[in-house]
Design goal:
This protein is mainly β. The protein has two helices and twelve strands; from the N terminus they run αββββββββββββα. A hairpin with a 4-residue loop joins strand 1 and strand 2. The protein is globular. The model has no long low-confidence stretch (mean pLDDT about 85).
């Protein structure tokens, strides 16, 4: 196996990454769970009918720290599962026909673990920010976020961001959220913050 193939095989064994999935009619958000034999396992709460996936070929992008993996796969198995909050979860497998790694050059999705609060109109939630970029922010929390938008305040950094919810994924009692910046949010502070994180990672000789 070539070095590139070994790297790709290893990356596909890692789970819980945000996914953009293209069906015949729309683009939906999903979560990549991991690899089962040679198939790839995904989960989404954005579909309500198996017919949108059954025996279909789908284009997908799995977003990882400094790049994304794009591919085409045929849906070979699908199941409807009731989530912890009574939501309908579609869990499905794709048999991949091709996979490709593409680097993202600027302001990569950087892994961090920082405490923050997410302040909504009628709720305040303690969260852990797990990754961040100009394109999106990943959060962990043990409490479900009931609203759609609010202010994300970092505990140890003077950084406040207006964000809105893109997707939700439940894993037992842990909630994972994908957020994106509100259109009127200035990105200047965030760019400075991302550059500081990049310098910190480089100083540790840690390669993403």
């Amino acid at each position: 196996m070539e070095e590139k193939d070994r790297k790709l095989s290893y990356l596909m064994s890692l789970g819980h990454w945000e996914v953009s999935l293209l069906t015949e009619s729309k683009t939906i958000s999903a979560v990549y769970i991991g690899k089962y034999k040679r198939n790839l396992l995904f989960e989404t709460t954005k579909l309500f009918d198996k017919a949108e996936l059954t025996d279909k070929k789908l284009d997908f992008k799995i977003f990882m720290p400094t790049f994304f993996i794009s591919g085409l796969g045929k849906c070979v198995k699908i199941a409807e599962i009731e989530g912890n909050r009574d939501e309908m979860v579609m869990r499905f497998m794709l048999e991949p026909e091709r996979l490709r790694i593409k680097q993202q050059r600027y302001y990569k999705r950087l892994p961090i673990l920082e405490k923050a609060t997410f302040d909504l109109e009628h709720q305040r939630v303690n969260v852990i920010v797990k990754d961040i970029s100009l394109q999106g922010i990943g959060l962990y929390t043990t409490e479900r976020i009931r609203g759609e938008s609010g202010i994300l305040n970092f505990e140890k950094n003077d950084l406040s961001l207006k964000v809105q919810k893109v997707h939700e994924f439940t894993d037992f009692n842990l909630f994972q959220y994908g957020m994106k910046l509100m259109p009127d949010q200035s990105t200047d502070q965030l760019k400075d913050f991302l550059l500081k994180i990049q310098k910190r990672i480089r100083s540790m000789d840690f390669i993403l």
